[in-house]
Design brief:
Length: about 325
């Protein structure tokens, strides 16, 4: 039984190249559906191996619900088709010097700009919107959870995000080594059970075993993620808090009203795009912010940076918070 993989190129307008992949098996017993499933797995393996992380045959087999013998067959098929599949310390990946790599990469992967625009569009939709969930599910079905993650995070965080996605997928505990906390100003190791990411993988929701609390950990502040063999032990306690437009998590929503100048309006929607949904123009180039936050910290930093451009209307508790921040300030 032989596998056949052929690439056909159709040029259009002298600049764009479209690649069509045909994959089929010559056999009397295999159905069309089986051939389609084989093609789907082959393409997904090609997509997975074309990032910079590298995967072992065992990881690929588990990822795509098959066995290592079948994976070896797919790897052989790719090599027979001209792809250079390199192996370093047991991890496989497609070499960028492979024929057609550049053309296929353009089709299979998002550029940084494409990923930014796509994620900004999708994640600007309200969390309870069914269309948003459908779009994300379609992306994950096409590119796999890890593939979407690797596309949108910074290169220095990609390995940590990969380990966290594996922990979430298989319900394992991890150690966040040398996590730099902005709240405590301390660097320490944290034993946690990660269970979800926030927008663009900026933070990860985890249940911290020592404190017994659900917390947000910024992925950029994690030095290294160690994936443990220990399964989750506190899944029933996993719970996400609300996250406000300033990316701060909390258990309660506190209403805020402020009057913004044109400059403050432009800066807040640039830095915190979701705030635009709760801002309306009023008069004389002024805008009303009428939204909610889970903490005064995030919005407080913004207001304190533009004291002449923002007028806090309510609540009084927020005014007291700001006054306490500046009362002892000396420069």
């Amino acid at each position: 039984m032989k596998n056949h993989l052929s690439f056909h190129f159709l040029k259009k307008n002298k600049k764009k190249t479209f690649i069509f992949v045909k994959y089929f098996r010559k056999t009397k017993n295999n159905s069309i559906m089986q051939n389609q499933e084989s093609l789907e797995k082959l393409l997904k393996i090609l997509m997975t191996l074309s990032n910079d992380l590298g995967y072992t045959p065992a990881e690929l087999a588990e990822m795509y619900d098959t066995n290592q013998r079948i994976v070896s067959g797919y790897i052989k098929t790719l090599r027979d088709a001209g792809f250079i599949v390199s192996e370093t310390e047991g991890k496989l990946k497609v070499d960028k010097k492979s024929p057609y790599y550049k053309e296929i990469s353009r089709l299979l992967h998002f550029s940084d700009e494409e990923a930014y625009i796509l994620n900004k569009a999708i994640h600007s939709i309200d969390n309870v919107n069914e269309i948003k969930n459908n779009l994300i599910n379609k992306l994950y079905s096409l590119y796999d959870f890890d593939r979407v993650a690797v596309t949108v995070v910074k290169r220095e965080s990609s390995e940590n995000v990969h380990q966290l996605t594996q922990a979430i997928k298989h319900k394992h505990q991890v150690i966040l080594h040398n996590y730099a906390s902005a709240n405590s100003s301390k660097v320490s190791n944290r034993l946690v059970e990660p269970f979800d990411f926030t927008t663009n993988y900026i933070s990860v929701w985890c249940y911290e075993v020592e404190s017994g609390k659900n917390k947000l950990f910024k992925t950029s502040r994690i030095w290294r993620v160690e994936l443990l063999n220990e399964n989750w032990k506190h899944e029933s306690k996993h719970q996400q808090d609300f996250i406000d437009m300033f990316r701060i998590g909390g258990k309660e929503k506190m209403p805020i009203q402020m009057k913004l100048s044109l400059r403050a309006f432009q800066l807040i929607i640039e830095e915190f795009p979701l705030s635009e949904k709760v801002i309306t123009p009023i008069e004389n180039n002024q805008y009303l912010f009428d939204g909610w936050v889970t903490s005064f910290n995030g919005i407080g930093r913004f207001v304190l940076g533009l004291p002449e451009e923002v007028e806090v209307i309510s609540p009084d508790a927020f005014k007291d918070f700001l006054n306490k921040k500046i009362i002892n300030r000396r420069f």
